[in-house]
Amino acid sequence: MTGARCISKENLNTTGFSYTLSLINGRYKMPILYTLMEFDTVRFNEMQRYIGLSYKTLSTNLKELETDGLIHREEYPQIPPRVEYTLTEKGKSLIPILDQMCEWGDVHRDE
Question: How far is the CA of 88 from the CAs of 12, 31, 48, 69, 103, in angstroms?
Answer without folding.
Answer: 27, 16, 20, 7, 23
